[in-house]
Amino acid sequence: MGLIREPLDVDFYVDSRPLTEEDLQAFSDYIKADKLKRAKKLKPEKTIIKAKASGLHMAVVR
């Protein structure tokens, strides 16, 4: 990963105004919704494999 260089003759200004309660609530709601969405996406589905074992040819896998 490399550095991001600022272009020449360009000034960046940051508006550091405080967040309102509405802004904080909207941000919190967005994060909750995103976490739920990601959890559903990443949740592995359980797969059940049924196999027939006959006589002495059974194996136990741990």
Query: What is the helix fraction of residues, given as a range?
Result: 25-40%
Let me know the largest β-sheet.
none
- Tally of strands: 0
Element order: H for helix, E for strand: H
What is the overall number of helices?
1
Distance between the termini: 41 Å
How does the helix and strand content classify structurally?
mainly alpha
Mean pLDDT: 77
Q: Which stretches are low in confidence, meaning pLDDT under 50 for 5 or more residues running?
A: none
Strand content: under 5%
**Shape, principal axes of CA atoms:** elongated
Radius of gyration from the CA trace? 27 Å
Description:
The structure is a single chain. The protein is mainly alpha-helical and 62 residues long. The protein has one helix and no strands. The longest helix has 22 residues, at 21-42. The radius of gyration is 27 Å and the shape is elongated. The mean pLDDT is 77.
Jot down its keywords:
single chain; 62 residues; mainly alpha; 1 helix; elongated
Give the gist of this structure.
The protein has 62 residues and is mainly alpha-helical. The protein contains one helix and no strands.
Q: What secondary-structure arrangement, pairings included, does this model have?
A:
Blueprint: H1 21-42
